[in-house]
């Protein structure tokens, strides 16, 4: 590892930034699927660490995210590219299995060439980075993260149609437990994005050795912020002048229970002719067709806008154009991004409630349609409270849950790992 002798640091918003007199870390993020346009944390964290003065690369496969690909076998370009200063190396995958596991040869040789001080292995369950953990004589620190907290919500469970499928899913869970345990126990440090993930690591994987730090999820506050110009543009585009707009954003899957959101919206719209709902995101075509048919059956199709996939860099305009963010059955980064855009959110009290209880959100018992509707009625009737919640949430995300803040915390972990390996 390159020496960090006589490292001098300055503070920018509480985060250490390497100065010219210090030696930056060579950081390699390993992740099975990497699509910057979708905007998951591995991209934002790498980008922020690059800004902090470190040398950062991403090692990944040539496969798109399973829920966004048109079918098995779809490929991205193999090789090296530079995205805004961030080096991305894509390896050719041999194949995918169990919905989200991808295998590709060449991980070890790529690491030899990249010569990292520290490797951040994102979600080892994808198997792609397995060789990085198994290497007997590694000359880099190894940090892993865990996002899982409950397997019943995994997409593969929705494929169960009979006893044979149930056996396959059972084998999948068993296999993942064995693989995950083998990988996680080799980490120098593990990062859990929420407290429930730390518990899952101990209860499901039975891993209790490496130190664990809970960092929280984050939002890119440079990308996500309120924009009056964007609000006007989107409202004009969709003829929303004078309307009260609810918005959902995320991957459109059955576990999000958007059919129930449509039913609640239909009930509210009967009393409020100016109410509109925007559904922002992409997902399986069969579920989309069902949702559109549901909207037609409820006679609200003219009040519901399905935008399809919207690039991350444009989402702030949609959040700015809306009045309330609505999610019935899940917590996600999307909600933090909405809050960063000064949007009050109505969310279930689930795994991220420790964040939402600090401000900016109206909480209700998870999955309860009546409680969800009651919360919406309450916030729709109080514009002053909506304004207060919006500003409260914006301040919270900027001060405590921005990716720049989390990236800095991770660098501190990397540095401690590297120092211990000396």
**Sheet with the most strands, sense and barrel status:** 8 strands, mixed
How much beta, percentage-wise?
A: 15-25%
Multimerization state: single chain
What's the CATH architecture of the largest domain? 3-Layer(aba) Sandwich
Helix count?
14
Describe what you observe in this structure:
With 422 residues, the chain is α/β, with parallel strands linked by helices. The protein has two domains: 9-218 and 402-421, 3-Layer(aba) Sandwich (Rossmann fold), CATH 3.40.50; 228-400, 3-Layer(aba) Sandwich (Rossmann fold). The protein is 39% helix and 19% strand. The chain is built from 14 helices and 18 strands. It has helices at 41-51, 107-114, 130-134, 163-184, 195-203, 228-237, 258-271, 285-297, 312-321, 333-340, 353-356, 369-380, 383-400, 403-421; strands spanning 9-12, 15-18, 26-30, 55-61, 79-83, 86-91, 95-97, 101-103, 118-121, 141-146, 189-192, 212-214, 244-249, 275-280, 304-308, 324-326, 345-348, 361-364. An eight-stranded mixed sheet has the order 5-6-4-3-9-10-11-12, sandwiched between helices. Strands 15-14-13-16-17-18 form a six-stranded parallel sheet, sandwiched between helices. Helix 11 (353-356) links the parallel strand 17 and strand 18. It is elongated, with a radius of gyration of 22 Å.
């Amino acid at each position: 590892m390159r020496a960090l002798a006589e490292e001098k640091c300055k503070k920018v918003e509480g985060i250490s930034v390497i100065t010219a007199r210090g030696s930056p870390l060579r950081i390699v993020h390993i992740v099975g699927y990497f699509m910057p346009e979708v905007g998951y944390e591995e991209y934002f964290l790498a980008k922020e660490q690059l800004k902090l003065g470190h040398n950062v690369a991403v090692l990944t496969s040539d496969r798109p995210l399973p829920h966004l690909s048109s079918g098995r076998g779809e490929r991205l370009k193999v090789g090296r590219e530079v995205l805004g200063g961030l080096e991305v190396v894509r390896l050719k995958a041999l194949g995918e299995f169990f919905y989200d596991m991808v295998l590709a040869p060449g991980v070890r040789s790529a690491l030899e060439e990249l010569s990292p001080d520290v490797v951040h292995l994102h979600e080892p369950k994808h198997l792609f980075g397995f060789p990085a953990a198994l290497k007997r004589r590694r000359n880099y620190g190894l940090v892993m993260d865990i996002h899982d907290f409950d397997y019943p919500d995994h997409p593969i469970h929705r494929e169960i149609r009979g006893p044979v499928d149930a056996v396959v899913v059972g084998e999948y869970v068993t296999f993942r437990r064995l693989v995950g345990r083998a990988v996680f126990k080799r980490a120098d440090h593990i990062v859990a994005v929420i407290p429930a993930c730390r518990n899952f690591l101990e209860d499901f994987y039975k891993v209790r050795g490496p130190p664990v730090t809970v960092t929280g999820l984050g939002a890119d506050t440079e990308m996500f912020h309120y924009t009056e110009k964007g609000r006007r543009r989107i409202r004009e585009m969709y003829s929303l002048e004078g309307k009260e707009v609810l918005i959902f954003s995320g991957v459109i899957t059955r576990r999000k229970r958007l059919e129930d959101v449509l039913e609640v919206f239909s009930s509210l719209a009967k009393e409020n002719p100016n109410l509109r709902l925007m559904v922002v995101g992409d997902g399986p075509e069969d579920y989309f067709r069902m949702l559109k048919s549901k909207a037609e059956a409820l006679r609200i199709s003219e009040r519901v806008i399905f935008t399809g996939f919207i690039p991350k860099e444009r989402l702030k305009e949609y959040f700015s154009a809306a009045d309330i963010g609505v999610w019935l059955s899940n917590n996600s980064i999307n909600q933090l991004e909405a809050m960063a855009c000064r949007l009050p959110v109505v969310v279930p009290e689930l795994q991220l409630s420790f964040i939402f209880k600090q401000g900016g959100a109206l909480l209700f018992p998870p999955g309860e349609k009546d409680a969800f509707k009651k919360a919406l009625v309450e916030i729709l009737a109080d514009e002053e409270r909506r304004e207060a919640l919006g500003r409260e949430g914006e301040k919270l995300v900027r001060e405590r849950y921005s990716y720049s803040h989390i990236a800095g915390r991770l660098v501190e972990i990397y540095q401690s790992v590297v120092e211990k390996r000396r």
